[in-house]
Design a protein that fits this description.
- The structure holds two protein chains of two kinds.
- By secondary structure, chain A is mainly α.
- Chain A is built from ten helices and no strands.
- The two termini of chain A are 49 Å apart.
- By secondary structure, chain B is an alpha/beta fold.
- Chain B is built from eleven helices and six strands.
- The relative contact order of chain B is 0.17.
- Classes of the chains: A mainly alpha, B alpha/beta.
- At the A-B interface, helix 3, helix 5, helix 6, helix 7 and helix 10 of A face helix 2, helix 5, helix 6, helix 9 and helix 11 of B.
Amino acid sequence: MFDTTQATWAAFWIIGAFVLFFALIPLLQTLPPRGRYMLIAVFTFISGLFFAAEFFLPVNEEGKNILTDPFQRLQGSLQVITALSLGLGTYGLIRLHLRNAVQRRPQWGYSLVLLIAFVTMAFFSVWNTLAEKELLGVQRTPLLERAFTLLFDYTLIQLDATMFSLIAFYIFSAAYRAFRIRSIEASILMFTAMVVMIGIVPLGKFISDSMGLPTTLTDEMRTNPFMLENILYNLRLPQIANWILNALNAPVQRAIEFGIGIGALAMAIRLWLSLERGIN
Amino acid sequence: MEQRTLWSRMMSIDRRILYLILAVNIVASLMARVAIEPDVPPAVRNFYETIEALQPGDMVMVSSTWSAGTLAENQPQFEAVLRHLMRKRLRFTIISFSPPARDISHRLARRLTSEAGYVEGKDWAHFGYSPDIILAIKGMSEDIAQAIRQDVRRAPIQQLEVMQGIKSLKDYKLVVDITPSDTLTAWISYRPANLNIIYCPTSVMAAEAYTFLDSKQILGMITGAKGAYEYEQLLGIVGLGTRFINAIQFSHVLIITFILLGNFAMFMQRRTQA
């Protein structure tokens, strides 16, 4: 059921956002660079302060503070901003490729393919969404079903998966050419990588079983770490791979994440206070 | 003109030959009927046991933020997880934090649930796409109907039969995060304290998650299609993970073999030159 009051309000907000957006651009253009910078800096600071305050202010028994509800409502605003940026991106893309095709610039054929693919996919996607949500009386038809399945399931998904899968071929080629043992560090790295690569797949278990290494850890083995069976059990490839991942990889990852966290905090403060040169 | 030795030729094999060898290896492995039993790691076993410990009717949130790019790794996980949830007769809702992920997960879930007799809206629901994960989690932790409002079919959340007795994320028992992106840290940071998390990353993302396994911030993890295979073994089903595992492990063997060959050629080349 389509709620007309809700739709009217939605239309009101969308038109309002567009008017505000398009009115702001010429207004910002009239300001001198210094004034423009100050305006953006003030807005950035107030927005950042709002998010920080919402996080740090004490909460009541329901887990809320004075900023919690406005914070929730911001989700809608973010959707508007995302949609607006998507619209801007689409406009830029169409404009560029339309110009390429009309003026027959070098490789204009690719632009034409892009435009045709874009319009076809957009048409059937919008049609499918309207039919799926039963909006504007649009019904699902066999043509829509066939066309959307062909475009989405059998074209878009497959192309996307193929593009990503190509990485495997590049990795294989790069590993063969570049992974050379030229130092002790490189040797350790290569040996560790090989143990993990084999240890984590079933082949690691198969090799360990074939070597006659113990397959289970008994209570007796647990209590006596220097027991031969215990030592042999820990030499199984899956056990070594798990040890590398848990005992070596995890602490290193933690250290890296701490470093990234501190760096991100410093960067966030610089952005919040508009000290970053990129926005000057 | 300098004569090229066997070793120097080996060190500069045309990349197209390498691509062909890998492609043949993958196709042959996918067709091979070799079945090697896995050594199920503790992280996968804990993942399985966390779902097994739930009671029929308990509510689970499936955070599905993956698209076709990582389909080979995330689809086996997604399918195996949904099959397990339905086998346990658990209720579940799905949410995505990217638009393509919404479409893919909804279409896949509709196919899988119809096979198991689950009805959309009654036994499960899809909350659609939410642009900001932090705001969505914080909002859902307070009031799902307020934060999400409608499911992907535009049905109001509070009218869905599956949502009976569920007001917020605090009423959920578990979150399953299936993703190649960094959504896990948001779930860990902003979820209600009583909500457990289990994780399905792609293979490249898994290394970062061991710190969270160590600290028990996630209770279990299945890593890529390889993890899905181990999980399928525990479930006793043949899914995509089982079909892909040979291609994965024999590709690992091929890569290792060629790295060793390359290094051997380099060693011999140096020796010849000396």
